[in-house]
Amino acid sequence: MHKKEWIVRKNMGLLDFLVQYSGLPKKEMIHFIRTGCLYCNGEVCTNVKALVQTGDKLVLAHHSRPALPFEVLYEDQEIIVIDKPAGLLSMADAREKEKTAYHLVGDYLKKQDRQARVFIVHRLDRDTSGVLVLAKNEKIKRLLQENWQTIVRKRAYVAVVEGTPKPLQGTIDNYLSETRTQLVYASAKKTPGSKRAITHYRVNTTQKGYSMVEVALDTGRKNQIRVHLAGLGCPIVGDRKYGARSNPLGRLGLHCEEVALVHPVSGKMMVFQAQRPACFETLFSRNAKK
User: Fold this and answer.
1) What is the pTM of this model?
2) Which residues are designated catalytic?
3) Which of 83, 91, 121, 187 could form a disulfide with 71, with the two C-beta atoms 3.0–4.6 Å apart?
């Protein structure tokens, strides 16, 4: 158990005080406050916006936090949000049981609390990076999954594609089905078992045969962005499954950079952002110099 104590010398914001005097990163300090590790004058304080006054006694008591091989974007008592790296499954499949976001986050939480649990709320494809939301109890998982379309207000992705989509901005609205070999394909009309899929896109940059495309989803079907962009004749780089012929990034060129949702308990609007992979930007800056 790690323990630190301070006596406040002037009136100021709690978080400002702790960031200034604790030597801990702001995100980590917010986590400790929200998970009940901070005491003010002997009482638990979980309000990061609280004000402290001269003479207040603050005590931070916490266990060492285990490391994860990726960034935790946000964590409270109900949810944990991570920046999933490309190449990592969201959850287990027939071939991989342990090297998954689900397994790694579960171990991370259990090292802090043996009773901790984690639940998958939605998924990102193995080779897609970015924002992934997980629940810490079954009630929150059900609440999020059953109300996903109303709770989630924004799902923003960036994709690097071959060629340039035409038109440069538009909406794709059709139906997706899946073959027995797990290949997803689109059709203009609804067929038995198909699901409606809506994707909005806008070309951000185009250079040397590649384009960076900003994508927003109204629906979240399996392989939706990959199939829709391939249908425009512009498959995502590195996506051989849907027709890509090049792999300049050494990975699938798809990243979930923002998810905005209404918190299932507090009702507050939360915005989670995962920084755009450096290799995406590098590809276009490198091409620009040629």
Assistant:
1) 0.78
2) 125
3) 83
